[in-house]
Design a protein that fits this description.
Layout lengths: L1 H15 L19 E5 L5 E2 L3 E9 L36 H17 L4 E8 L2 E8 L3 E7 L3 E9 L4 E9 L6 E7 L9 E4 L5 E2 L3 E2 L5 E2 L4 E4 L5 E7 L9 E9 L7 E9 L6 E8 L2
Length: 284
């Protein structure tokens, strides 16, 4: 009898014994000297776009649990104060002790990953900014450059990582524009030619040494046209075609107080060879 009672007590004691808790993971101590900062695009040289979409990423090559580097999707449920009607959700049957354990696990996870939270100091053309990042996660930022020289400096204070980039932006408007227009719905075979002051000929799809460009659409543009006299010509077209009128317009400094406009119209005979439409001057 005594032996049976002893066995029963041992069984009950084994049933009531609490399960051992898993050992807490040791906090990771990163070696900041091994970190690196990735920046794309790699700014430098010349650009014609003032808006730059940057991707910045802090990388720890010894990261014991590198996160998946993917954009986080916006979820209205993540917003504080968002309305939740509770419809469509299953009843939470967890006990108070279980909910407490979930909260403690989340806090422990946040504490283990606290080292990932970093603040970057950023200087862009004299303006001071701060960007919040997480090690292992890319952050996308859009910056607006200025005309001329630009300088971007990014510093991670704790590691001393620093990235400096300089580049130039030129968004000068197009000063000179020449277009050919069909007159009275007539089709004139042939094409436009623009003779620049230095003797260079701009024709279909070719850029001149000074930067002038005559596209296949028949539009000639130049952002910084050299001063001097420009000559417009129309090359002879299909010999079996019909005579047709061409109309060509040139616009210099359009939309400004210095705007100047010229217009020429000529009857083009099929196969007549290059025909001079007219000339105009660009002053320094």
């Amino acid at each position: 009898m005594i032996l049976a009672l002893a066995l029963s007590a041992a069984v009950l004691g084994a049933q009531k014994a609490p399960k051992p808790k898993p050992a807490a993971l040791a906090a990771y101590a990163p070696d900041l000297k091994q970190w690196r900062m990735e920046l794309s695009p790699d700014l430098g040289g010349w650009s014609s776009d003032r808006t730059v979409s940057l991707r910045v990423k802090l990388v720890d090559p010894k990261d014991p649990n590198p996160p998946k580097d993917e954009p986080r999707r916006f979820d209205y449920e993540d917003e504080e104060g968002s309305y939740d009607s509770g419809e469509g959700r299953e009843e939470d049957t967890r006990t108070a002790e279980q909910l407490k354990q979930v909260r403690l696990d989340r806090e422990a996870e946040a504490a283990r990953n606290a080292w990932r939270q970093r603040t970057l100091k950023v200087w862009l053309n004299g303006a001071t900014l701060t960007w919040s990042v997480q090690v292992g996660h890319s952050v996308n930022q859009e910056i607006t450059a200025q005309n001329g020289e630009n300088r971007l400096e990014i510093l991670e204070p704790d590691s001393g990582l620093r990235v400096v980039r300089s580049w130039w932006v030129s968004t000068a408007r197009t000063r000179l524009r020449v277009v050919s227009i069909q007159a009275q719905d007539e089709y004139a075979s042939g094409s436009l030619q623009v003779l620049e002051p230095d003797g260079a000929v701009a024709q279909g799809g070719r850029r001149t040494p000074s930067g002038g460009m005559l596209r296949w659409s028949g539009e000639y543009t130049h952002e910084t046209p050299p001063p001097g006299t420009y000559t417009l010509k129309w090359t002879g077209g299909w010999r079996g075609g019909k005579p047709a009128r061409v109309r060509v317009e040139a616009l210099l400094d359009g939309g400004t107080d210095q705007e100047r406009r010229w217009t020429w119209e000529r009857l083009i005979l099929p196969g007549a060879g290059p025909v001079t439409l007219g000339t105009f001057d660009v002053e320094p």
